[in-house]
Amino acid sequence: MPERRTKKEILNRLSYLEGHCRAIKRMVDEEAYCIDIIHQIEAVEAALKKVKERILENHLATCVMTAVRGKNERQREKVINELMEVFKKNERN
To answer: Is 31 exposed, middle or buried (0-12, 13-18, 19+ CB in 10 A)?
Structure first.
């Protein structure tokens, strides 16, 4: 669970993304120049990447650190396996 400041930051970024996606939809509806639409989509992709990085950073600092410092070996293995799956998925994309 993100800390309050992190959660607020993530929610703000997601609100920004919602607005940006609505703008892209409007551009398509108004038949804007294709390259302009593509540039807006790239901006959304970059913003989503930042949100993902911030959530991962928070996860590492909270859930992973707690599991690594704890005595529960299964929990440690679980968080390490989850991280490995995330990294493997990113490599495929």
So the answer is: exposed
pLDDT digits (tens, 9 = 90+) for 54-70: 999 999 999 899 999 99
How many domains, in total, are found in the chain? 1
Residue 24 neighbours by CB distance under 10 Å: 19
CATH number of residue 56's parent domain: 1.20.58.1000
What's the pLDDT tens digit per position in 11-38? 999 999 999 999 999 999 999 999 999 9
3-state secondary structure of 93: coil
Extract the tokens encoding 74: 């299964």
pTM: 0.80
